[in-house]
């Protein structure tokens, strides 16, 4: 038993051991950042040996020159060769070099900075060391909310997240945080950025407040905004308008009864102007909402 199990145990130990050293020295790290922010790409020798007089070289996707340091000479003090994309945006940490720390900072990150970076010590003894770091840059715009439509069935709300990257998950929530049923999101993609539109139909709640949440798990980012729907006001207009036709009909009947057909003709010539004005003002079920950041007013009330 023992003699058959022993080689297996040794093999497992070897796997675990090499696995940990691999992960520590060469394993890929991941840095996530939102576009426009700064990113620190870590790279440190576990020996913590002084690298002030050494050479290290940062490259992106195996080719673009990001940052090179060679015993005090580097891209920020006149050394040529840096890729245009990184000019003026990358620095090392001078005071960290004596601890074997070759980390760099990329300022004002852009979507095109995303990719796989290597930090190499090509002249290190006894052998060259290479570290891999993946940089994920996301764009996390705020959702735009608006009221599309109001009818007896409810109010149609639209949430739009434009030019987001990576693709966000978009949800409508009630004010207590529960997820509201919504239509299938409409998603379009251009140049790695996504436009997502999500509509839901809501009815009165205790707060009449609704929230749209955009989540980008990949960059650990959540943005949201909320909207107030003034339900009570949307019915006040209707009830006020509804009895006006009744009054008009009553008035016409009254005129016919007291003045005869001649009087009716006189009145009817004056009334159409009034009627067209009344219809234009919008007594129909359709209403336009105007949106200003946190509250919405239905125009007709
Ligand atoms: C290396 O330096 C950077 C910048 O000061 C710092 O954020 C990082 O923690 C340092 N790494 C180590 C292993 O000390
Ligand atoms: C970076 O490398 C990982 C794993 O090796 C790969 O899945 C990913 O697509 C690469 N990213 C880019 C932008 O090339
Ligand atoms: C708005 O409401 C009207 C009538 O209720 C309906 O016909 C129309 O399809 C709605 N529009 C949207 C965008 O939901």
UniProtKB/TrEMBL annotation:
Keyword Secreted (UniProt): no
The protein's name in its UniProt record: Ig-like domain-containing protein
SUPFAM superfamilies in the cross-refs: Immunoglobulin
Cellular localization per UniProt: Membrane
Entry keywords, A to Z: Immunoglobulin domain, Membrane, Signal, Transmembrane, Transmembrane helix
Residue spans crossing the bilayer: 243-271
This protein's GO CC annotations: external side of plasma membrane
Chief site of localization: membrane
Record GO terms (molecular function): signaling receptor binding
GO annotation (BP), single: regulation of cytokine production
PANTHER family assigned: BUTYROPHILIN, ICOS LIGAND
One Pfam family matching this protein: C2-set_3
Signal peptide (UniProt feature, chain positions): 1-23
Ig-like domain: residues covered: 7-119, 143-228
């Amino acid at each position: 038993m023992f003699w058959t199990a022993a080689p297996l145990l040794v093999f497992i130990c070897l796997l675990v051991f090499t696995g940990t050293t691999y992960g520590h020295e060469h394993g890929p790290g991941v840095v996530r950042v939102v576009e426009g922010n700064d990113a620190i790409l870590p790279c440190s020798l576990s020996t913590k040996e002084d690298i002030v007089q050494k050479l290290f070289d940062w490259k992106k996707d195996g080719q673009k020159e990001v940052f090179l340091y060679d015993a005090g000479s580097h891209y920020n003090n006149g050394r040529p060769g840096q890729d245009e994309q990184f000019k003026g945006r990358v620095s090392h940490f001078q005071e960290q070099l004596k601890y074997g720390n070759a980390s760099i900072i990329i300022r004002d990150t852009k979507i095109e900075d995303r990719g796989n970076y290597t930090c190499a010590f090509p002249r290190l003894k006894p052998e060259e060391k290479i570290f891999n770091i993946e940089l994920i840059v996301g764009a996390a715009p705020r959702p735009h909310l608006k009221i599309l439509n109001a009818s007896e069935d409810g109010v149609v709300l639209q949430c739009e997240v434009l030019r987001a990257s990576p693709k966000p998950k978009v949800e409508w929530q009630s004010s207590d945080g529960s997820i509201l049923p919504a239509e299938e999101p409409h998603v379009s993609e251009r140049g790695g950025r996504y436009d997502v539109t999500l509509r839901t139909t809501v009815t009165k709640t205790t707060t009449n407040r609704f929230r749209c949440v955009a989540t980008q798990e990949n960059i650990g980012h959540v943005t949201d905004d909320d909207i107030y729907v003034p339900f009570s006001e949307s019915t006040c207009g209707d009830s006020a308008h509804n009895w006006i036709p009744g009054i008009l009909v009553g008035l016409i009947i009254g005129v016919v009864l007291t003045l005869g057909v001649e009087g009716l003709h006189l009145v009817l010539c004056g009334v159409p102007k009034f009627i067209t004005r009344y219809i234009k003002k919008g007594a129909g079920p359709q209403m336009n909402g105007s949106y200003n950041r946190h509250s919405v007013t239905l125009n007709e009330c």
